[in-house]
Structures are given as structure tokens and as C-alpha cells.
Amino acid sequence: MLNTDASESGKNLRIVVMVSGGGTNLQAIIDGVRNGRITNTEIAGVISNNKNAYALTRAEKNHIPNQCVSPKDYESRDIFNEKLLEAVASYEPDLIVLAGFLVVIPPAMIRKYENRMINIHPSLIPSFCGRGYYGLKVHEAALERGVKVVGATVHFVDEGTDTGPIILQKAVEVEPGDTPETLQKRVMEQAEWKILPQAIDLIANGRVRVEGNQTKILS
Ligand code: GAR
Fold first, then answer.
1. Within a 10 A sphere around the Cβ of 106, how many other Cβ atoms?
2. Concatenated DSSP letters for 42-53?
3. Ligand 1 mutation pick, 30, 57, 105, 192, max ligand atoms within 8 A of CB
């Protein structure tokens, strides 16, 4: 069992959500905690690398502690990485949720939060993932290849790019006339906003076990 199992201790799972943009996945998490789809969980903080991210406004509106840690504000990547780690640690999280966080995660952070950091990726891994596949680019590539089914994946973060143990996936059909934008919207609505809250709920209730590069969902 993961040491993220909050259900055994009777305490809420404290999550930090990391964002870069619009924050629709953050909103799905906020809504999930509020409507009971996500149980035993509290959003301890939101961190963005981009001060203009609408995700920060969503956090503010919902009275969730939030801050921006931008690489632009520091002299070197090493200093930024240190500041990012400090910001995350200040919320004392049990789980870190990358919800559209488009910055390379410092290796020290990956090691510190091994099996305690998850990411939502807008494709069915191992298709259309890895370096250079993020945001709209994923959907452009899928349409260019002419696939008929796309989807989203929630996985633990390891030192590779989109290579960690897969927790949940959901498929979505490509429709005639889709553009990268229409496809992105459908993947968000039908897959991302469902499986990300669901994965957090499973972890908060001790139902995800990591076994090598795979996970087992316990009933
Ligand atoms: C989402 O589609 C998410 O899957 C993607 O960025 C978008 C963020 O949207 N993440 C990646 O591409 C990570 N490789 P949001 O800010 O509205 O949640």
C-alpha cells in the first residue's frame, strides 16, 4: 500500500495541485472534493509556474492557498528547482497532482515524492506521449496519424517522461471533422475530468498499490 493511504490514519489526504494554464482539471478536483466524488481529501495548496494562469484565479475563488513559482524570477534553473521544492514542501502534501503542469519536474522532487506524485496526460499512454507531447500538440499528432480512438491517462510520475505506473485510462472516440481544439475539449470532458478525480479518490482510500511499473486497483 502507498504511504499516501489516508483512510487508515483517519486523516484527509493532503494534496498539492500543480498547474500552468486554465486549470479545468483543477476545477474538476475542486468540484469532486465538494460533491463527494473525491473523499478523505483536502486541497492544501495550488502552485503555478505562470502568474497569469487562470488556475490561480480558480484557487483564489475557492479560498485555496496558492502561489506562483516562476523560473523567470530566478537566476538559474537550480535555484528555481530549489524554490519549487520548498513551495511544495511548505504544504506538507501526501500527494502531488500535476494537472496541466508544463514544467520539467526536478529529479530531486521526483525522488522525494516517489509514488506520491501523479500526472494527467491527454492520450492513451504509450501513444502520443513523451518529450514534446503536451497540451494541444498531443491532439494535433493524433489527428495527423488518423487514429480513431484517443483518450487520457493518469499515472505516477517517475524519472522518465510519461513512463510511470498507469493508474487509470479512459478512451474517447475521434469524430469526423474534429479539430485539435474540439478533440481536446472532448478528451477533457469525457476522460480527464473523470479519471483524475477518480484516481485521487482511489489513492485517498488506499485502493492503489504500485507493483513494479504497474498498479493494482484494490476493491
Ligand atoms: C490538460 O489537457 C492536460 O491533460 C494537459 O494539459 C491540459 C491542461 O488543461 N497536460 C499535459 O499535456 C501534460 N503532458 P487545464 O489547465 O485546463 O487542466
1. 17
2. EEEEEEES-TT-
3. 192
Q: Whose C-alpha lies nearest to ligand 1, atom 7?
A: 100
User: In whole angstroms, what is the distance from residue 155 CA to residue 59 CA?
Assistant: 24
Model-level pTM greater than 0.85?
Answer: yes
| Of 131, 151, 141, nearest in space to 191 by CA | 151
Half-sphere exposure for 40 (CA within 13 Å, toward CB):
21
Helix residue spans in 75-218 (DSSP H): 77-90, 107-112, 136-145, 180-187, 193-204
**97, 153, 188, best to mutate for ligand 1 pocket (most atoms within 8 Å of CB):** 188
Tell me: the pLDDT tens digits for 74-107? 999 999 999 999 999 999 999 999 999 999 999 9
The pairing of strands 95-98 and 66-68 is unpaired
Coil, strand or helix: which one is 180? helix
Active site residue 139: no
What H or E segment, with its residue span, contains residue 216? strand 214-217
pLDDT given for residue 10 in this prediction: 75
182 burial (CB, 10 Å; 0-12 / 13-18 / 19+) is middle
Is pLDDT at 191 greater than 60 in this prediction?
A: yes
Closest to 164 (Cα-Cα) out of 217, 190, 125: 125
